[in-house]
Amino acid sequence: MSIFKRLRDLTVASVNDALDSMEDPVVMLNQYMRDMEVEIGQVEVAVARQVALEKKFRQQWEEATALVEKRDRQVKLALVEQEDELARRALMDKKQFEARAQEYEELYRTASEAAAQMREKLTELKEEFYKMRAKRFTLMARAQVARTQKQVNQAVTGIGTQTAGRGFARMEEKVIRMEAEAQLSGKWRQPSVGLEDALLALEKDELDAELAALKAAIEQKADKVEKPGETAKAEKA
Which domain of life is it from (predicted)? Predict the structure, then answer.
């Protein structure tokens, strides 16, 4: 297989796939019905013309037959009147009208058969059209049901649900990050102990220690003063 034939086949296949995907059953069914209506209209026009032709040939056949009968009477009358030459001429006309009548009869019968076939064809087309019209409504309803069912399936288990699920998961992760950032921001924003505060606290601790030492020294001195007096009282007793 040549490369050009393969390319052609691929192109044709791609075009057919594209056309198949573009075909809307409802639109195409309506178009087919319009095409059938046009075809039926054309056949009706053709049948009308054929019927008119049939009537014309029948009329000509009847007129020629009437002239044959008329000339036959004239031939007989001329013979009775002993008008042989006139009878001969009337007989010649009679034969011409007989030939013409036979020709018109054949044309009429042919036109009549054609008109009958065309009427039958028209009847079949109309019956098929009525069947197709009834079937169109059924197919349109089925197409609508299938389209709705497809949309529902896509909404429930299709791409839309998956996208929504991924979106919710992404938003949940974002909320978790926001909460974590808020907690971290609260920790970092707690008031920190500055250098001045630390030195003041240290000085307070030193003062407290010094005051405690002084207090202990005073108490110890007081104890030493009280003990000699207590000794003297004991000796006097």
Answer: Bacteria
